[in-house]
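User: Structure with flavin-adenine dinucleotide, tokens only please.
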Amino acid sequence: MSSVDMRVDLNGLKLKNPITVASGTFGFGREYADYIDLSDIGAISVKGLTLEPRQGNEGIRIAETPMGMINSVGLQNPGVEQFIREEIPFLRQFDTKIIANINGNNIDEYCKMAEILSYEDVDSLELNISCPNVKNGGLAFGTNPSVVKEVVSRVRAASKKHLIVKLSPNVTNIKEIAMIAEQEGADCISLINTLSGMVIDINKRKPVLKRGSGGLSGPAIKPIAVRMVYDVYDAVKIPILGMGGISNSTDAIEFFLAGANAIAIGTANFVEPRVTKQILADLKSYLIRNNYDSVNELVRDLSV
Amino acid sequence: MSSVDMRVDLNGLKLKNPITVASGTFGFGREYADYIDLSDIGAISVKGLTLEPRQGNEGIRIAETPMGMINSVGLQNPGVEQFIREEIPFLRQFDTKIIANINGNNIDEYCKMAEILSYEDVDSLELNISCPNVKNGGLAFGTNPSVVKEVVSRVRAASKKHLIVKLSPNVTNIKEIAMIAEQEGADCISLINTLSGMVIDINKRKPVLKRGSGGLSGPAIKPIAVRMVYDVYDAVKIPILGMGGISNSTDAIEFFLAGANAIAIGTANFVEPRVTKQILADLKSYLIRNNYDSVNELVRDLSV
Amino acid sequence: MKFQGLVKVIQKKFVSDDVFKIVIEKPEHMGEVRPGQFFNFNVERMLLRRPISVSAIGEETLEFTIKILGKGTKELSLLKTLDEVDIMGPLGNGFDTLNHKKVLLVGGGIGVAPIKGLGEFLSKDSIEMKTLLGFRDTPYMIDDFKAFSNEVITVSENDKDYRLGYITVPLEEVLADPKEKIDMIYACGPLVMLKSVQKICAQFNTPVQLLMEEKMACGIGACLVCTCKTKEGDFGFKHSRMCLEGPMFYGDEVIFDE
Amino acid sequence: MKFQGLVKVIQKKFVSDDVFKIVIEKPEHMGEVRPGQFFNFNVERMLLRRPISVSAIGEETLEFTIKILGKGTKELSLLKTLDEVDIMGPLGNGFDTLNHKKVLLVGGGIGVAPIKGLGEFLSKDSIEMKTLLGFRDTPYMIDDFKAFSNEVITVSENDKDYRLGYITVPLEEVLADPKEKIDMIYACGPLVMLKSVQKICAQFNTPVQLLMEEKMACGIGACLVCTCKTKEGDFGFKHSRMCLEGPMFYGDEVIFDE
Ligand SMILES: Cc1cc2nc3c(=O)[nH]c(=O)nc-3n(C[C@H](O)[C@H](O)[C@H](O)COP(=O)(O)OP(=O)(O)OC[C@H]3O[C@@H](n4cnc5c(N)ncnc54)[C@H](O)[C@@H]3O)c2cc1C
Ligand SMILES: Cc1cc2nc3c(=O)[nH]c(=O)nc-3n(C[C@H](O)[C@H](O)[C@H](O)COP(=O)(O)OP(=O)(O)OC[C@H]3O[C@@H](n4cnc5c(N)ncnc54)[C@H](O)[C@@H]3O)c2cc1C
Ligand SMILES: Cc1cc2nc3c(=O)[nH]c(=O)nc-3n(C[C@H](O)[C@H](O)[C@H](O)COP(=O)(O)O)c2cc1C
Ligand SMILES: Cc1cc2nc3c(=O)[nH]c(=O)nc-3n(C[C@H](O)[C@H](O)[C@H](O)COP(=O)(O)O)c2cc1C
Ligand code: FES
Ligand code: FES
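Assistant:
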């Protein structure tokens, strides 16, 4: 079998391979360590962090939908300090990049977290401006162009780390938001976060999730995510980390062809704990079969 | 079996039952007449009409997705004149309401169609400001608040017919758009139209649809549609015609509980040509079992 | 009312690695079924139905021959005798079967399935039939054709046990041969093949009925996702629905995309 | 590495209208499985896996007892002997099985399944067991319990062949009886039942292990969608993951929602 170069460089974040895992779907890595060698994964974006520890939302947090699920975890996490103390050392045992997904109640909090993490051993910051489960945080941030401008530029000023900005799909014009993020200093764009959705229990006659709506993920949203990656590719020069419903190598290849430089697996981890490894292997075979020397050549390699 | 009142009044459009079919998924009714008695359906929203006949988009127009499909028909239709000449008389043989779904290249065209149809035997006009397949038409209209304001107010002035405004889900703030439509004189809101999506063929290395992206419909989008109906219910006083992925009575009941006064079945017709009749029967049983006297009582009847 | 509902599978067998036949019980009230028509099969795990042509029309049964291509046909291949499956149909305009003296049947790949149904149907009258079959790999169902066709020529792109090459070569030979007097050609296969067949038939001025295939949704003309271009007026074109105006179109009607 | 992969179904039978048992071959390298632990089952037509407790732990086999509730369990009910099914596990913290003299087993509805597995496990030691079973309709699996439990009391909400009412009534009777000296209670059933059981046990100051159920996704602690409140510090609470910190929690740990 001939070989193919799987390394990708996301504008300064160098990955051994382009298969990463999406924030909130892989815990802090340790939960999956019994099922997969974490060194097989290009990068791990950890569960969304906040400045202080958070308990997350009360009541039912999940509902299944046709080929999807909605969640309303509400950023339950041990806080950035415990992450630094306990999770970074654990993850550093493995040959994988660490992406810290950061979330604030306000712009100051985002900046403070970025500052704190500047001096810590993480490879990248992923600015989550799109979590739909935190009312006073995410939603407004990720959908309002002027707030996006402010949060990205201030976080950029607060830290020299590699900076990924993660976009919300719940917007009219995703290109506009991506361009603002690029302009204000993002090194990379990741998309998409979950779509806002609701499931109602017709027996109890109330929304299944205690908070009403939650974030829709999984195969159901894949066509929307592919379209957004395709659109954003045309709008920015910085690399794209694509995600949304990827479950197998066919899905993954779709994202590369749409314009993603690397991809993240989310919900599919719940179904197949070793899916990342499988996708990496199948992607490699596809590349070899189709005479590619490097996975980078696949990015937006649409035939005309 | 006790009886239950299935009549609904959508602010002037009186339906014998609240189960209607969505524009573009039921042709002009005649295609389904071999499978179902059209008089069993509350209303039929016909295939999107334009002022002049349209050939529609070239090349492949459909791709299947996980629990959904994307289409790019591009408003192929015989034009409003032939609709008046041939389709209205056909549909009038049945005891069902006729909703004319109208689409323009510009605001003048919308107005002209509304004017023409004012004098014709249709029960309602459905202003489609959200078709994502017509580049110079729909997309911009349905997502830009100031254009929505103008098109609705001018169409309102052009015709006294019952007026439904059909919203695009591809927006940041669906409540805002709904409120504008209400303010400018809409009698009813229908939602959601399809979400913008893309599927790429990894063997041919090009988007499956010749036009790249298309409109995502089917069960995959249901949680998004339910959430939007829920949100819009809080924002407007006029009734809501809810749709998006409804395939069975459980789905239908979800929409009523979210706040829809009537519902439309779209993609599910392709799978089960008699699905409307089945949903009507199952909905009735649910209402009787749960001691409702009228389907109107089910609207937003969430328990607290 | 047209038929839509469950029918019973009374026979199922594989005719090659990835091609299988199922025979179902024809429901009582189903109207006439003609060769070239199709049924839309409900597939458990998929959203949309899958259109499948009849490959044999019996008094009380219908046969379908299906190639496993993706998930939907894979799912159908799991059907067993006595299982039930939800179908709707018969749908579309099948072949026109006028009283010709000699016809040429042209089938490519799984396109041989409806052509076989047609051949069996035609064999009730005393029509002379010649058959050309083309496959990418190992041919199948040749014996079915030998049962009714005066002559069967089989080509394959890769199987050295057969004449190698494309089906268009023997097609040109037959049409160029003055001894063969073909009144009508019936063809089904991949679109690229049909496009070549159309061209060749036009060259030789022989009428051809093409049975077309495209991804479908409703199968009954309502959704407009299955169109192809057909000639309209002297210059123009229109988008005709393969499921309703087709799947059979005459060679001189269709305009293939580049 | 923990186990995730295909296992073979070697037995399958219905024990009531909508409850069935399947026995699978235990894969070689699977570690110890304890009562109260569960496995996450892949279900063909559904996105998410379905968590199912072990209802018997053999040397070379595992048994699961499953109630058809929705689409996923319906799909699992179609499994036949010799079919393969993809499972991952064992997952979660099962019951603590210390050396008690007399224990009380409390099972409600399909919650009897893991309790049965526990009882069989405990019966290897000479522990005295008393069992309370509660059902909404017709009871099932009572004989399984009679095989190892000194006494079995069964109630049903609707089946007049049994003592009518809720399980909480005999529970209070047993705990109020000074002759019964219960060291530990093990309970599994719907959340409302567990909530009452918790309250009654607290009243009588008897320790109880509750096996909890909530919709899950990952099943291994990564996604945080399966939480319940547990006491933390003197006043506060935290959201514990049922799949990882549970599904067994002691009665004095859990805080039930209103
Ligand atoms: C009128 C008609 C009659 C047919 N008769 C037969 C028959 O008798 N026997 C038989 O085996 N098949 C027949 N087909 C084709 C059959 O419907 C498809 O092979 C089937 O739908 C594929 O489904 P799938 O889920 O297995 O593959 P999918 O996963 O849906 O598709 C696999 C690949 O094939 C493409 N594809 C899917 N459907 C079609 C199609 N209809 N035409 C061209 N490309 C397609 C997809 O875009 C995709 O690239 C017929 C199709 C039509 C329209
Ligand atoms: C740790 C654990 C162990 C379990 N052990 C068993 C067992 O041994 N035998 C058994 O039959 N079942 C067991 N269950 C429950 C079983 O997982 C669910 O019944 C099953 O997932 C339902 O799937 P479904 O697709 O049939 O129903 P769905 O269509 O998914 O759900 C039907 C209804 O049940 C609700 N529901 C789904 N899952 C759960 C759940 N886990 N808890 C409460 N409500 C739920 C849904 O919200 C919905 O209202 C266990 C659950 C857990 C968490
Ligand atoms: C349970 C769950 C929790 C999530 N938590 C976070 C989070 O904390 N931060 C974040 O940026 N995205 C979060 N996401 C979004 C995912 O990272 C990803 O963007 C989304 O799920 C789409 O990918 P998928 O369809 O492959 O899951 C979460 C998703 C799920 C399903
Ligand atoms: C093939 C197809 C064609 C459609 N054409 C139109 C149209 O002409 N006008 C319109 O307003 N909506 C059109 N729609 C959108 C539907 O009316 C409906 O809003 C959407 O499909 C969501 O409902 P569903 O998921 O039940 O299909 C079309 C949808 C499909 C699938
Ligand atoms: S498949 Fe719907 S019109 Fe042909
Ligand atoms: S199911 Fe994912 S944490 Fe419990």
